[in-house]
Amino acid sequence: MNHAATEVANIGPRERRKRRLLGIVSLTVAVGVAFVLVAFGAPRWSRLVVFFPLWMAGLGLLQAREKT
Predict the structure, then answer these.
(1) Which is the most buried residue in 5, 33, 40, 64, by most CB within 10 A?
(2) Domain annotation covers residue 10
(3) Closest CA to 62 of 28, 22, 7
């Protein structure tokens, strides 16, 4: 038996918009923090603080795209 693949969204359009916005804001924060750290010559290890907002940006944007 051959069933057509159906796409089931786990979240609605409103929640996708919220997650996309979270991703965009987090990405903006990450880029801004990275720029400031590099501009002020912060030690390389301190740039690890950029990881969390980048991780949030990735999660938000991927979840919005995949509708999960």
Answers:
(1) 64
(2) no
(3) 22
Do the domain assignments include residue 56?
Answer: yes
| Rounded Cα–Cα distance for residues 32 and 24 (Å) | 12
- For the record, the structure tokens of 32 come out as 């801004």
* Three-state DSSP state, 3: coil
Sole residue written with tokens 């801004």:
32
For the stretch 13-59, pLDDT in tens is 899 999 999 999 999 999 999 999 999 999 999 989 999 999 999 99
- For residue 43 the two structure tokens come to 């030690």
Q: Rounded to an integer, what distance in angstroms lies between the CA atom of residue 36 and that of residue 54?
A: 15
Q: What pTM, to 2 d.p., does this model score?
A: 0.80
